[in-house]
Design a protein that fits this description.
The protein has one domain: Spore Coat Polysaccharide Biosynthesis Protein SpsA, Chain A (Alpha-Beta Complex). The protein has helices at residues 37-47, 62-67, 72-80, 84-91, 110-115, 118-121, 142-153, 215-220, 232-240, 260-272, 278-289; strands at 6-10, 31-32, 35-36, 52-57, 98-103, 126-129, 133-137, 156-162, 172-181, 184-192, 203-211, 245-249, 252-256. Helices cover 33% and strands 26% of the residues.
Length: 290
Amino acid sequence: MQKIRKAVIPAAGYGTRFLPVTKAVAKEMLPIIDTPTIEYIVREAMESGIEDIIIIVSSNKNSIMDYFDNNFELETQLKTKGKMKELAQITDLPSKINIHFIRQHEQLGLGHAVLTAKTFIGDEPFAVLLGDDVYVGNKKPALAQLIDAYEKTGASILGTLEVSDENVSKYGICDPEAVVEKGLSKLKGVVEKPALEDAPSHSAIGGRYILDSKIFSYLETQTRGAGNEIQLTDAILRMMKEKEVYSLDIDGRRYDIGSKLGFIEATIDFALKRDDLKDSVKALLESKIK
């Protein structure tokens, strides 16, 4: 069984839900306090054992490329002033993992974004992490949990989260064929945004995937679906007819950074976990509630 060494992070979208700021700032660079959201995604991959990451960007996402590059002038200034803690903050991550970039010249959907990584991935199984979803795993990173499941099944895995009745119709919901163990199921299908009474489960696809490289052959022949885009889920459904696909309910907390409320919630929760901020933020929140 091949090891999961590579990951794809699609980051070429327009970020229209965060306009007007995303007219000039990549949504992936919007900070949760002082750290861009994309860094949390990259760190999750790194802490899960990923060695190489390819970030799919568009022509207006140079700030992402700059962020993960060296800034020699700033580094020199920090060294000269003896600010070694701050220096470590900007040099630590790039020194620990290989980050590559490729441009998606036309935004034709998530499936198309993943397809642009075909040459980089080759014939290896690989991970996909969506930048709109930030996970805080309870015992280990979300992606590490999927990799563990892959090592048990040797097949593609869709990371899922259990959603409430009122949220079932907002997600692609997994249709299990057989439960392997608690939280891990072999799938026979996915139902896109079903009504509650039609939902085969409460396991919703949640922005983390382990995919067999065979997915590229399906993406290359995938007709456009919703939004006139090449949908990754459509290609996975076709692949499911020939190869096993599983779902794994991720043990942890997911933040939907693609929504304003989710972004605010993540900022508050992350602040409350920081020793330098938690007391002040708690007092601030209490004063606002009164």
